[in-house]
Specification:
TIM Barrel, five-stranded parallel β-sheet, eight-stranded parallel β-sheet, single chain
Length: 429
């Protein structure tokens, strides 16, 4: 049984759900709950699970950015399950296997909204056994819904038109063509916020993921830099750069609430030009606008040295500010991140990219919107799109699969995966 309307969340009280729960248990059928992502919703789900311990409950809509709540209810209630379509928590299947049991995770893509291949990649690249992957892909769902494996018809591989890159992703193999992740983050082991736990977030742990997927290099802005301290973040970048040559390059961060740090931030880049690719201003954390006077000196520096400027572009407001800034600082290259969140934002970002030679698009977002890659290639051309993962908040595998499975020429995939960002990197002076 599917309960989909969040406005009916009050109906999840054990009293009102008793007859439904009894019927489902008697028929050995699960209850499916949508929109399970808020604290209030998790609380109601947990109370329901405790009241009816024999009722299997499948949560849909769990997300990486409220995984503290998700982990808690999973730990407390062994009759809770979840589908992976929106839960892109970094290493979610490895975490589930270790702490809750892999039998509690179900493959889902929410097709036709999301890319089916993106979600398949999360399973294929997970560091779990093939038997575990089979459980996530179908075994767990068959058990919960009373479906016999023998009744399922497998797809015919000969009917799948996959190029060499898609075939590697389909088998969970490292991508053999060059791949550069133009948008990631790093943190300490177990890096966390008030709602999010970012597992596998240290450079040591991230390198293992890069190796599994075939990513050569990642451009990173440490979590400390977009949260509070750009200078500390710069030190973390340099440590990763030195400890793992060729694997980590950095976006320098600057908190304008501490203007005395600006010259130190510039100096760190100038003294280590090979380690830094650009800057990452982040207004949501620091309470400023990109166009505020306090940012002028920082953007002028990026312009002078032809640096990349990574902007949180999955927001019409920041996209519009980037349109203005890119018209002034023409030597800097502005990377509009998260522009694949939906087609409305994508169209807005595409208009800016088509107007400005120094604006490119990074689509990374949990939405992994179906046909988004194809849409943007048609709108702006493959030369103006770069690959980013946003790891370790998000698992990088779905973001990689989103590109690998896209219905575009393989030469366009190669441009998006590495060639474009390498070309832009060569502009630094």
């Amino acid at each position: 049984m599917l309960l989909d309307n969040p406005l009916l969340s009050g109906s999840l009280s054990p009293e009102s759900m008793s007859k439904i729960a009894e019927t489902l248990v008697n028929h050995k059928k699960p209850l499916i709950l949508c929109n399970t992502s808020t604290e209030a919703r998790f609380d109601k789900v947990s109370k329901l699970a405790k009241a009816f311990p024999e009722l299997d409950i499948v949560m849909q809509g769990t997300t990486w950015n409220t995984n503290r709540l998700f982990f808690e209810v999973m730990d407390q209630n062994s009759n809770l399950y979840f589908d992976i379509s929106s839960n892109h928590t970094n290493g979610i299947l490895e975490i589930t296997k270790k702490h809750f049991g892999i039998q509690r995770a179900l493959y889902s893509s929410t097709w036709p909204q999301k890319s089916m291949g993106a979600m398949k990649s999360m399973v294929e690249y997970a560091d779990i056994t093939d038997a575990d992957k089979t459980l996530v892909a179908s075994g767990n769902a068959c058990r919960l819904f009373g479906i016999s494996h023998n009744e399922l018809t497998l797809y015919d591989d000969s009917q799948c038109k996959l190029d060499e890159i898609a075939l590697e992703a389909d088998a969970g193999k490292p991508i053999s063509v060059p791949v550069i992740d133009a948008h990631s983050h790093i943190g300490a082991k177990g890096c966390a916020t008030n709602t999010t736990i970012m597992k596998f977030s240290s450079p040591d742990e991230i390198v293992k993921k890069l190796d599994r997927t075939g990513i050569d290099t990642t451009f990173t802005a440490p979590w400390s830099g977009i949260s509070y301290d750009g200078i500390q973040a710069g030190k973390e970048i340099l440590d990763a750069y030195k400890n793992y040559p060729g694997r980590f390059l950095g976006y320098m961060c600057y908190n304008p609430n501490y203007p005395n740090n600006l010259e130190s931030a510039k100096e760190m880049i100038l003294q280590n030009p090979d380690a830094f690719v650009g800057i990452k201003p982040y207004p949501p954390s620091f309470g400023f606008e990109l166009t505020d006077d306090v940012m002028k000196d920082w953007f002028e520096f990026a312009d002078k040295h032809h640096l990349l400027v990574l902007i949180h572009g999955g927001n019409a407001h920041y996209a519009e500010q980037t349109d203005y800034l890119s018209s002034i600082y023409k030597n800097a290259t502005f990377v509009l991140a998260h522009c694949g969140v939906n087609f409305s934002i994508a169209k807005k970002c595409a208009e800016i990219a088509n107007k400005r030679d120094n604006v490119v698009l990074d689509i990374t977002i949990t939405a992994t919107t179906r046909k988004m890659v194809e849409f943007l290639v048609a709108e702006v051309g493959a030369d103006k799109i770069v690959f980013g993962s946003d790891m370790p908040m998000r698992d990088l595998s779905p973001q990689l699969g989103w590109i690998c499975y896209a219905d575009i020429p393989i030469e366009d995939k190669k441009k998006i995966l590495a060639e474009n960002i390498k070309r832009l990197l060569d502009k630094r002076i």
